[in-house]
């Protein structure tokens, strides 16, 4: 949950979407590999499969010495020297002159501290050093520049509380639907290993769609479209289940199931980009962690999709489809994040949300 936020804070606004494109490609590839591995180990204990899956994550131990702290987070919390050290190292690795980069950092900090100067491009060295010293002292003593946000901050103001509530609902529905479709794949009219493999292959087209559309139509619209695809496909698949005894009925059932999996993969994947982009820096991991934790409720309910299918064949598809339709209707209440700088403080988010809703209201009045 932390890695998407870290990677987003390292990238400029115009290429942030590529973080999720690469992540989804890696996720889908790993899911595809699981199918043949499980197939060849089906006569052995499940412990061997778990051992292999665990060993593939062993590299993460070395992350402690490889990863750097987010520069944006360091600056937001007044740890200027640490941020500059990382930027200097990055400049040396990329053979870039570090002086202009550090000068930009000084200008931003001086501007935040309201250091008056006649020319933003020529801030005096002494003034910058005083600003930096003042910022460091504030962070160590009063901590006035980095408010102490907690999980309760997500519910203290109306706008951020509404964003958090909507995200909790969306994450729960997406987690339930995504893992419910995976775990109910054994009920499809083909071999269970083949059905799982086909459903994971269905995620590859989403990588292409994210690469071509997400930065053109925006995160919110992309998420709405793919939730709508999932809802329509799963509801259509529910109707097709009524005619499952008819000759050739298995083909449309598989097609609708395939499209439903494609739709929920696109919407769920988009959340890993959309959610951290909405929340301010010191609440970004909390703002992503809380909806994700709520989403685990959906994950815990997902295993019951298989037994429910055996009792009422059409029920899981109908439930998943209706929930995705509800999410499609509430997502327009969120602001669009494409092209916007990541918010640093809760006040930035409040102003951004307020401006967003006012702009939309003006457009409607002009029509």
Describe the structure.
This protein is mainly α and 367 residues long. It folds into two domains: 2-61 and 149-359, MFS general substrate transporter like domains (Growth Hormone, Chain: A), CATH 1.20.1250.20; 78-140, no CATH class. It has helices at residues 2-10, 17-40, 46-55, 63-66, 71-76, 80-93, 98-112, 125-140, 158-183, 192-201, 204-217, 219-241, 250-278, 284-301, 305-311, 315-330, 346-366. Helix 2 packs antiparallel against helix 10 (192-201) and helix 7 (98-112) crosses helix 8. It is globular, with a radius of gyration of 24 Å. The two termini are 41 Å apart. The model is unreliable at 115-135 and 138-144 (pLDDT under 50).
| Radius of gyration of CA atoms, rounded to a whole number | 24 Å
Average pLDDT across residues?
80
The proportion of residues in beta strands is under 5%
Tally of helical segments: 17
* Name given to the CATH homologous superfamily of the largest domain: MFS general substrate transporter like domains
Number of E-state strands: 0
Principal-axis shape? globular
CATH architecture of the largest domain: Up-down Bundle
Structural class: mainly alpha
